[in-house]
Amino acid sequence: MSNGTVVLAYSGGLDTSCILVWLKEQGYDVITYLANIGQDEDFEAARKKAESLGAKKVFIEDLRSEFVEDFIWPSVQANAVYEDRYLMGTAIARPCIARRQVEIARMESAQFVSHGATGKGNDQIRFELTCYALYPEVKIIAPWRIPEFYNRFRGRTDLMEYAKKHGIPVPVTPRAPWSMDANLMHISYESGILENPKSHAPADLYLMTKNPEDAPNVPDVLEIEFRKGFVAKASIQKYPLSLLLSPRGKHGVGRIDIVENRFIGMKSRGIYETPGGTVLLKAHLDIETFTMDKEVRRIKQGLGVKFSELVYNGFWYSPECDFVRHCIAKSQENVEGKVQLSIFKGQVYILGRESPKSLYNEELVSMDVQGDYDPCDASGFIRINAVRLREHCRLQGFSDPKP
Amino acid sequence: MSNGTVVLAYSGGLDTSCILVWLKEQGYDVITYLANIGQDEDFEAARKKAESLGAKKVFIEDLRSEFVEDFIWPSVQANAVYEDRYLMGTAIARPCIARRQVEIARMESAQFVSHGATGKGNDQIRFELTCYALYPEVKIIAPWRIPEFYNRFRGRTDLMEYAKKHGIPVPVTPRAPWSMDANLMHISYESGILENPKSHAPADLYLMTKNPEDAPNVPDVLEIEFRKGFVAKASIQKYPLSLLLSPRGKHGVGRIDIVENRFIGMKSRGIYETPGGTVLLKAHLDIETFTMDKEVRRIKQGLGVKFSELVYNGFWYSPECDFVRHCIAKSQENVEGKVQLSIFKGQVYILGRESPKSLYNEELVSMDVQGDYDPCDASGFIRINAVRLREHCRLQGFSDPKP
Amino acid sequence: MSNGTVVLAYSGGLDTSCILVWLKEQGYDVITYLANIGQDEDFEAARKKAESLGAKKVFIEDLRSEFVEDFIWPSVQANAVYEDRYLMGTAIARPCIARRQVEIARMESAQFVSHGATGKGNDQIRFELTCYALYPEVKIIAPWRIPEFYNRFRGRTDLMEYAKKHGIPVPVTPRAPWSMDANLMHISYESGILENPKSHAPADLYLMTKNPEDAPNVPDVLEIEFRKGFVAKASIQKYPLSLLLSPRGKHGVGRIDIVENRFIGMKSRGIYETPGGTVLLKAHLDIETFTMDKEVRRIKQGLGVKFSELVYNGFWYSPECDFVRHCIAKSQENVEGKVQLSIFKGQVYILGRESPKSLYNEELVSMDVQGDYDPCDASGFIRINAVRLREHCRLQGFSDPKP
Amino acid sequence: MSNGTVVLAYSGGLDTSCILVWLKEQGYDVITYLANIGQDEDFEAARKKAESLGAKKVFIEDLRSEFVEDFIWPSVQANAVYEDRYLMGTAIARPCIARRQVEIARMESAQFVSHGATGKGNDQIRFELTCYALYPEVKIIAPWRIPEFYNRFRGRTDLMEYAKKHGIPVPVTPRAPWSMDANLMHISYESGILENPKSHAPADLYLMTKNPEDAPNVPDVLEIEFRKGFVAKASIQKYPLSLLLSPRGKHGVGRIDIVENRFIGMKSRGIYETPGGTVLLKAHLDIETFTMDKEVRRIKQGLGVKFSELVYNGFWYSPECDFVRHCIAKSQENVEGKVQLSIFKGQVYILGRESPKSLYNEELVSMDVQGDYDPCDASGFIRINAVRLREHCRLQGFSDPKP
């Protein structure tokens, strides 16, 4: 008699292979599910492994295109950056993966979903909030939060032993002394030796970007076109998905080393590579400010900060994030045009921009021609803005403004 | 009979020399005032020029140290960035200059102040709001907004002619086809050929930073120490003011090319070099997030955006900017520690950080030890956060979340 | 030879009658325009007066219905309140009036518009920003800001004299010692004896609401239905426009006496009556919180504050206000249901509410049944929320929290 | 052998009496603690009851004055209102009570604290976050979240039986069909028959305020003085604590019936009476806007909203709430002066105000005198504000602004 069916987010690695077997031990039927979001993986090997370990069914799903369309593009529109630096390559992948997991669970009439995320991280939250939001009745099995599981598997050694005992193939190459998460947009590195915030990242850690010191000695110049705040089809045809991938990595763009605040209130150290995302952020910022009204942009900037917090915290599928995405998309209607930029040794330089919809008025702003502008108006503008300041000064009495 | 005394912000250049003479023509006694905020200038030559043109008195004031202490440090505390990119090297210099101008006006019992800023820019506002805020009774003479002046001097040729006629020394080297503003923190370039937002900046425009392509092939590694969000004395002794100056320029750090929104509602194109400021921003961001509570930082981030708007718009001396500065300074009490970073070919890389006051808890966040943390708590945390999302989903009825 | 055609916002009163004649003196053809937005006015008398004073054409436009549909309803959706108290009955009328004025100007090929608003107030700004936003080439004649006009008419006596001289009928009843502005939503009172912020408003000032002391001794109970955040048709049929008018005035609802901050930076004292608007605000707040997701509401609340500032300052027609209105309207999609309330002696009491779209779940929240809720989850929720607080306390060392 | 010592927040009622005995059953030594924050209670009877039930020690603490000083005044400064309506009389009492509870626990070397709050409410969070924030090592026993407890006591009947069995005095008067929480600032009512959001509150529910229909037929006029945003000593002497109590209740002020969003994501219906707090909020709002700079107020308003969310959610003792309180207090330095108001049948009317520190300038704002103001400046002010709007209109092409 089965205790029910579980859809397990399966990576093919040691942890989730042990979880697969352990779930079976607990009396569940296990369906494995592996999403292809552009990470470097032998998907067929993972399929075989899952089947050999007794998965009732195996799903390998290519989500790359919906990851780009539904998750990366809206983040570009939002200039999404968490705590001023992190481009959230992992955070936006989680709802994409979990959305499909829930679809499979519904399709397969599974009451349970499971994953191998740890109990201290953000990813457990991002996975599970998505599951609950899209499938409120689902039950979630998170082994790393179940005492019987985590007390049994206190370290890698315990997993290895269990693996050997249950015929789970054991990795032969030694594991890097940190953990990683990769997709077509970025790679993140954390924990292990990186937990000491003072110690520098080893040079061989980075897999997605070249060391800027070894990057080409000649800049790469490109032009990206936007339409409604999205990368335009023309640009995607010109730089197919590679926008998000290797060419920028070749230049060593998009490496950061930060300490960030997790949703659960811990500070953690993370190292990220987001080559294409960094280029897109800079390009989008440029075309957005070029075309969008100043005050609309100010409001939209606040919504973008909100969006980033929500996504980082796992609320991609929430009424408020839906609302914010809708508002941001509305703000992008005229964000259209071309940005020229150069990429060199880890840095992106904006060179110029043009747009059929810009509010930039060369004549109006010119120092050489007057345009439809009367400089005398500025006197009144300044004096009225000063009304309040002058009253304030008078009330205070004159005082030396130096601190 | 004099019409009164004017304190003129004098640069020694053609424009303000003509204004000096023109003001005398209008019957004013003119006191010239030239602030040294680190720009490359022959101050003694300027003094002699002003005297020879009939200035009643000449003030040359070295404000470099108060510019750093009172304006740059608070901006570093605020992570001050306008429209996500501009570090406001010009915007924070204006209140510094105008503050002293007003002090001189009070000291010399001058009822008037004057400046050579144009009628379309931000600087006129920054100068004048500071003047009104600190000297509410002052009268401001802004020749470039007075029809008799600007109709007489419609271009550089008119100024040259007037100069020749009035014995004003005329510059012999041809002027760059753009305008510039420099201080110890940055140089800005705008107008002229830069007014076409599509045209790339010429390579020889940049004066403060080296072309990253010609920058050293070996990174520079440094460590900056902060105390209360300021650069600590120890670091200032180690890298004396050079923090803000050439060494980082040597690496080509801090170049940006943007279109920004002026306070008066125009979009304008500006190119900026802020080598040291860029390094400090990145270092401060790192140590701030490392030491400051997550939610305090979130509130402080909003105040920093507000601060940037206020400063950009000329409201450094305003009740609200005083208030915001006070709040931000309060938030910095524990922002203390050392940041290690490397600088290479235009880019800044954070390498590590340490602090006696960090909320970072290596044991708590560790994936290898449990610390004072029960993973089971996360289940409750997630489920309670999902209460609202599940209700929402149920009310909507199940619907495909794909757009 | 005419200097051009002016569309003058004409009230029929002494001021704008003098302006009409004065504009003709200056060589303009004058078209008068009087909007009916529900104020108590003899529109036909005004028409005759304008004609007799030489208006080239007279427009009397009934804008009541578009005032309600296009301006009041969106303000109700936004819970629009300026500085926590003022419901902006005047502020939302101005763009309604000016929009039609500009339409007439375009239709009549008039290059000029004019109005009788003073040079210290908000209304000049609200009128003119609307005009510029919808007709960028328009020229505005604001006599109270033209020295030749305001120096000639330094007080009411000067206007009376001019009127007599030019055959302008002079009011026979003495003017109230304050100024007023009325429409179907509200009446405002300011200036004159009200300029002393300490002096109490005289009891006979109020024209729209009864003194609560004289209001009925029995509460009025009503039920208002909303749909998409608007008052539903059913309710409008039940309480036709009177929702916004007398019945609530009968109960003395909606009187406030405040000092507010004008856009131009002065503080001014205003007294307002907004009987129906006050009822609608309370009812809408209730149904909104009942139906809208908590976090959506939080974001929407911020947008509502922004909306109020924009509208108060005259930016109804601006890209940012369009954007904010769009976002707010989006948030209202599920704001649907009925609110029961009672009105008594100046106060509104919410009694109950119901909705087919509420996220309120009686079973879930019940103290008597458990619903789909596990109380144990709250422990984890609290403990995770405390992670950060405990770290903070430990870093600080124990200290007495008493100030 | 004891399992340790628990400090139990004890009310003297049936629930916490059962908890007391149950905790002893579980092997704990129980210290009871009852805070006097102005609720109507027989404290001596509660002491005897606790002693008779085996409390090891009994603390009855009079916190009324610190409740006012440390919690009510800062909330008045903040204009603290949750979701636009709730004045948070319960939310601010919780950290006051828990702070002392933790002090007692430390003093008595108790490792445990306990309370009788339910598992669905906000109060459990407010209590516990305070405890964790001030005593990070404390262990919390929340019986209503412990399955052995809540499964044993599924309703009032179970508690009654248990009480009878263990010699706990059983209340003789029938309980109201809702729950209540009272202190000197307010009473809240929720659950029971109030859980149906449509049903009206029974007239006899209200204990703190008179039915406005029965309130005096003559208004009460009073004057409240503020200093630094606090109620000034002079006013407290004049209206001793009664400010917060009965006289305003006599007029039926401060009744609201709302549906609010709990921190845990449920919507719940609450009815509140806050007579004095409502008067103080209106008075403080008036004097604050009268004295504070417009833009400071705008920023402070945002901080006040944040403060309200934090306090409602239980984060009174958190780094961010400390920070926000500090900033708000700073904003109040000039909030000084007297407000005259009248109270009548449930409503508060502001009549006038005066202050030695107001930015209100009667001459400046006067419609009759010009003051230090040039109306021509307003033209420039408006035209510069319109620059952006005109550009926008031109880019869009002319379009009918009607929706």
Automatic annotation (TrEMBL), chains A, B, C, D:
It catalyses: L-citrulline + L-aspartate + ATP = 2-(N(omega)-L-arginino)succinate + AMP + diphosphate + H(+). Keywords: Amino-acid biosynthesis, Arginine biosynthesis, ATP-binding, Cytoplasm, Ligase, Nucleotide-binding, Phosphoprotein, Urea cycle. Pathway: Amino-acid biosynthesis; L-arginine biosynthesis; L-arginine from L-ornithine and carbamoyl phosphate: step 2/3; Nitrogen metabolism; urea cycle; (N(omega)-L-arginino)succinate from L-aspartate and L-citrulline: step 1/1. The keyword tRNA processing does not apply. It holds the Pfam family Arginosuc_syn_C. Its EC number is 6.3.4.5. Residues 178-390 form the Arginosuccinate synthase C-terminal domain. InterPro entries: Arginosuc_syn_C (IPR048268), Arginosuc_syn_N (IPR048267), Arginosuc_synth (IPR001518), Arginosuc_synth_CS (IPR018223), Arginosuc_synth_type_1_subfam (IPR023434), AS_cat/multimer_dom_body (IPR024074), Rossmann-like_a/b/a_fold (IPR014729). GO terms for molecular function: argininosuccinate synthase activity; ATP binding. One of its GO terms (cellular component) is cytosol. Residues 6-169 form the Arginosuccinate synthase-like N-terminal domain. PROSITE patterns: ARGININOSUCCIN_SYN_1, ARGININOSUCCIN_SYN_2. It is found in: Cytoplasm, Cytosol. GO terms for biological process: argininosuccinate metabolic process; L-arginine biosynthetic process; urea cycle. This is Argininosuccinate synthase. It comes from Nothobranchius furzeri (Turquoise killifish).
